[in-house]
Amino acid sequence: MAINFLDLLGSVAQGGMTGSSSGRMQSAASSLGSLTSLLGGAVSSSGGAGGLQSLLDGLMGGGQSVLNRAGQAAGGKDNLAAAGIGALLGALTGKQGSSTAMNGLGGGMMGLLGMMAYKALMGSGQEAASSGIASGAVSAPRVTEQQIASDAEIILTAMIDAAKADGQVDAEELNRITGRLKSTGAGQEGLNYVVAQLQAPMATEKIVSATRGRPELAAQVYSASLMAIEVDTQAERAYLDRLGKAMGLSASVIRNIEQLVGMKEKSI
Length: 268
What we know:
Layout: H1 5-15, H2 21-32, H3 34-38, H4 48-59, H5 65-73, H6 77-82, H7 85-92, H8 104-122, H9 125-131, H10 145-163, H11 171-183, H12 188-198, H13 204-211, H14 215-226, H15 234-246, H16 251-260
Helix pairs in contact: 1-8, 1-10, 1-11, 2-4, 2-8, 4-8, 7-8, 8-14, 8-16, 10-13, 10-14, 11-12, 13-14, 14-16
């Protein structure tokens, strides 16, 4: 049976790879403010797995009207399309014929990351101009379930790589991560995949290649990476700096993303 990367991403998001994962997602949702509320997301200040699940479920719970409300919040559907987010939300909410399997935690996580990418890119004149977002010059292709699954795999890979950034994952950390995944109901196949990837070499080239020419995916990857680690070591900070640079993200976009998740100014 093939791994459902969207579902597995949802399990990782719900379980959290570190103690700060949930708090950073909550902070991002709160920072997005009116955009998440217009999408029907319940931005809870309570934190924890329960509040996070409500948030991610709520983001995709509005059905096809999500796209209309997102367009209003972002200043028009052309802006969403230019950022590659209109097509993403359309696919996640079934507007493009997607199945209901695209909803739920995994879909909510992809929607949250997509909106974070839009916010971060639009907040940077350099990045918005280079990607055509500001003028609506970029027309995003139709996003299929296969594309979303592929992007979810890349994002999951990035989160796992981030967890390995400060060295080999020891048995204690491995047990902690898999324990969190089990608590979310992740299947054995998904657990086996995560364990194998945690023990595999870094996949930076694969990640960078997938984001080439897609600043919105690069921003999602960077956002997800921040949700996977504490960023409290020199090795983790150096890894993020290398990743952001390799994906072509400007310093202003990186700063915008880090502010969205509630990170303080670089102090390491």
